[in-house]
Queue: 4 jobs
Job 1
Amino acid sequence: MADALTFSHPHLSSRHLECEVLVAGGGVSGVCCALSAARNGARVILCQDRPVLGGNASSEIRMHVVGANSMRPCADLELEARETGIVEEIRLENAVRNAQRSPSMFDQILYEKCVAEPNLTLMLNTMVAGVAKAGRRITAVQALRLSTEGMKIGSATVFQASSI
C-alpha cells in the first residue's frame, strides 16, 4: 500500500483522522502510552479491537496489574520496588474506587481516564487492519469497526503498537 489513498472499500463508510500519535492496542501499556502522549500535548488516537480497555487486566481476561511490584517485605527504610507514573495513578484510583476489586470497575476507570483527556480520541471495537508505508516507515493505518461498517484512515507522526 503506497499511501492512505489506496484504502477503500465499496461497502464501508470511510473517514480520515489525523493525529500525532496513533496507539494500536488498549492494554495497560497502550492506555498509559496514549495518556502520557495526550497529557504532553500530542493529538492521540487509541485503537482497541475489544469493547473494553485493559487487555489482560480487563474484565475479559482478569489478570492483575503487577508490574515491578515484588510484594516482598523490604528492609527498614527501604522502598518497595513498584511501578510509578500513570500505572501507579491507575492502581491508586482503582484501590480507592474499587474496594471489591471488580474487573468491570477497573474497565470503567481506564475508560474514564481516556475519555477525560481532550487530546485523546478513543476508538473501541476498532482493529488496525492494514498499514501504508513509505519505504520502511508507516505513514497511515487502516482501522476497521465492522459493527458500524466503518473504515477509518489514520495518519500520524508516530505509530505505537502496544504489546500484548
Job 2
Amino acid sequence: MPDTDTKAAAPNTHLAPYAAKGLKGRILSGVQPTGNLHLGNYLGAIRNFARLQDDYECLYCVVDMHAITVWQDPAALSSQTREIAAAFLASGVDGRKHAVFNQSAVPEHAQLAWVFNCVARLGWMNRMTQFKEKAGKDRENASLGLYAYPALMAADILIYKATHVPVGEDQKQHLELTRDIAIKFNNDFHTPDFFPVTEPLIFGAATRVMSLRDGTKKMSKSDPSDYSRINLTDDADAIAQKIRRAKTDPLPMPDTAADAEKRPDADNLLGIYAALADQEKDAVIAAFAGKQFSEFKAALTDLAVAKLGPVGAEMQRLMKDPGYVDSVLNEGAAKARAIAAPILADVYKTVGFLKP
C-alpha cells in the first residue's frame, strides 16, 4: 500500500531540455469560456500569455471541461470558447507557433484526471477553498465535477509535464495541489522524476483588478452592473463612459502609496493605470499626486482606449471568422495531443494498465 503523504520532491531535472533550446521551460495555462472577458482577465492573465511565448514553449487552453462543472447553455459555450481563443490571438499569442486549443479536444486531460482522482486524497480536496466559495450554502446540489475539478486542473498541467504555470493569488492553492499530486504519484510508483514539480509564475501588478463601482470587490463578469467592468470587446465610447462613471471619492489624487491604500477606489484606478502603462504604481502616484480625479480619469481613458481598443477590434474581427478560429484550435489540439498521448501511455504503463 503506497504512502498517503507526499514526502519530498525530487530535484527538477525537466528543465534541461528547454535550456538546451534557449528556453526556460514549458507553460500550460487556461481560461474558462464562461461569459465576457474583462480588463481583469486581460491584465491578470491573457496579456501575460503573449509576453511569455518568447521564453517558454506555451500551451494555452480554453478549459471548456471546467466550464461545465456548472450548467452551461451549449450554444453559448461554443461561442464563448471561440471568443476566448480570439482573445488569446488578439492579445498577441502566436497560434501557429504555440498550441491554442480547447481542453475537450484533447481527451488525455480527462484520462489522466481519473488516475489523479485515485491519487489525490479526500482530505486534500476538502481543503480547496474555491469549491466552498462556488458551491456556497447548497453544497449537496453541487456537481461532483465541481468538487473534483482540482484533479482535472492538475491533469491539465501534468499531461504536458509543464514546468511552469502562470497563476494569480487565488489559484496558488490549486497549483500546490498539483505539486502534491505529482510528488505522490512519483513516490507511489517509485518513479521519482516522472512528473515535474511545477513552479508558479506569479505576476505582481494588477493581477487583482477591482470593480469600477466598488474598489473592495474583485472585477467580475457576474456583477449585475456592466459599469463595474471594462469588457475586452467594449469600444472607445464605452470605455470612456465607464471610466468617467468609476467610483471615486471627493479628495484630490493621493500623494503617497500609503494614502492610496486607505482609498480603495482611487488605489484600484491607479493600479489599472500602472498596469496598462507598464509602470510602477509609485511612479503613477507621483505623476498625478494632488491633481483632480477628472484630470486623472481623462489620462486613464486615453491610455485604456489606446491599449485595449486594438485588442477588442481584433477580437471582433476574429469572431466574424469562426472558420479561422476553429482551424487554429484544431491545429493546436493536434500539437497538444502529440505531447500528451505518449505521456499518458507512460502513465498507463506505470500504473499497470494493459496496452490496448
Job 3
Amino acid sequence: MGKTKLDLRERVFARGMNYPSDAELLMLILGSGTKALPVEEIAYKMLDAIDLSGGQNLIDAFLKIPGVGMGKALAVCAAIELGRRKASHLNAVVNQPQDLLPFIKQYAFKNSEHFIAVSLSGAREILSQNIVALGNSNSAIINPREVFFDAVQARASAVILAHNHPSGIVSPSQEDIETTRRLCSAADLLGISVLDHIIITKNEYFSFKEHNLLKEDA
C-alpha cells in the first residue's frame, strides 16, 4: 500500500495536479488508510458521501465511514471549502466597488503590497482574478504586461485593478495615481477598459472611479 501511495505522488509530481482523478485527490489528502480499509476504498466511500449529501453535513457523513476520524474528515472538508471559496468569484457580476470587495478583502490583511487584476466579460462577470505584482510594505513594481496578460488571454473587455495598503492609509499616493493613469493608457491600446482601481485596507476602501481619478484629465 505504501508503494501505491508513493507511486501516486510521483505520478502527480511528474504530471501536475490536473492528472489525478477525484478519488486520487482524496487519497493525497487522506495520506493513508487503515489495516481494515485501504485508502482507495476510503476515498471512494467519501466521494459517494459527497455525491449523496449535496454538500450538506459532510463532516457527519464522513465520520460514519470506517477509518475516517475527525482529523481526516476536517481535512477533506477544509479542502472542499477552500476550493469553493476560490471558485465562488467566477461569473459574479461587478457593477460597483462593493460587489468586488468580498473577493479581494483577504489582501487587506497582508503585510506587503499585493496588486490584483480582475478580468471582466462584457456583462461585467468575473473571468479571472490574479496577483500581478508583489511588493514590500510600501509599494509594488507594476508591469503593464503582467497586469493585462490574463485579460488578453481571456479576451476580457474590462479589468478592475486593486491593491492593498499595509500602512492602513487608504488614500492613494501620487505614485498610485500616476501608475493608474499609465495602466489606463496601456489598456486603451489593447482595447480593454479599466473600470476602477480600488485600494483596500483592513477597515475601508478607496475607489478611483468614485473619486474621478481614472483619467488624466479628471
Job 4
Amino acid sequence: MSTEKSSLHTRNLHRNPYDFDLLISCVPELKHYVFVNVHGTTTINFSLPEAVKLLNKALLFHFYKVKNWDIPDSNLCPPIPGRADYVHYIADLLAEQKGEIPTGNSIKGLDVGVGANLVYPLIAHQSYGWTMLGTDINEDSLENAQRILDQNPDLSSAIQLQHQPNSNHIFKGIIAPGDRFTFSMCNPPFHDSKESMIKGNLRKTKNLNKGKAQKTLLNFGGQQSELWCEGGELAFISNMITESVQYSSQVLWFTCLVSKKDNLYKLTTLLKKVKAIDFKTIDMAQGQKVSRILAWTFVPKKDRKI
C-alpha cells in the first residue's frame, strides 16, 4: 500500500495517510466513525455525511488552526485534500510571474460560491497569508460562513463575505470600480438538474459501498445552488467567461474548476472569442477523480504585476 497520496500537489499537507489517533485527539467524536477495513487500513465510511464532516473539522483544526468548524447537514461537505490542491495550484500560477510564490495580505483572492463551509478562504489564508473575499447567492450559507469566522476572530480581517443578490450574475454587483483581485476561483455547480444530481450521487454512493446500491445519501451534502444550475457547469462557466470581460483589468487571473473534460473545447473556444490574452488548463487529480482548473487572463504578460 502506498504511504503517500502521490496524486496530490507536492505542498499539500494531506499527502500522507490520515493519522486518526491525532485527528481523534482534535475532535473526539470522530472516534465513533473510525474502523479498520478488510485491508487492515484505518479509515471512515466516506458515504456517511457526519463522518466526513467530523473528519473535515479535525483536519481544519489540526492543519489550519481553524476552531469549531461546522456546517448544516444540508450544505456541501467538501473533501479537504482536493480543496487544498486548488489553492496550491493557484499559488503556482501566481509564482510564474514572480519566480516565487507570493504571500501576504497584498494578494487578494475572490472565491465565487464560497458556500457555508468557507474552506477555500480558510486554506488560502492559513497557507499563504492571502486576503480573501467569499461570495454566494445563498444568504443562509453566508450566515454559517460568518459563524465560522466569529469562532476564529483572528481571521476576520483577512476573510470577508459578500452576498450576490442576483443569481444570473457572478462578478457584477461584487467587483466595484476600484477593486483589484489577484485571482478569482470557483467550484461551479456541476449538474444541470436535480434529477441528474441524484443519479450522479447514487453512482458515487455505489462506488463508496463497493457496488452495493443503498438509499441515496448526499455524502458531501449540498444545497441546489451548490450542486446544480440550469445548463450545468458549461452554462455557468460560459457565463463567467463572458462576464469576466467587463472586469478584465480588475482581476489578474480568473480561474474555475472544470469537472467534465468534454466541456473544455467549448470553453476555450469562447475564451478565444472574447480575446483572452492567455489561458491554460491545469490538471488536478483528486483521489480517483481527475478534475482540472481553467485559468485565463486579459492582462499582457509584461503588465502582470503581483
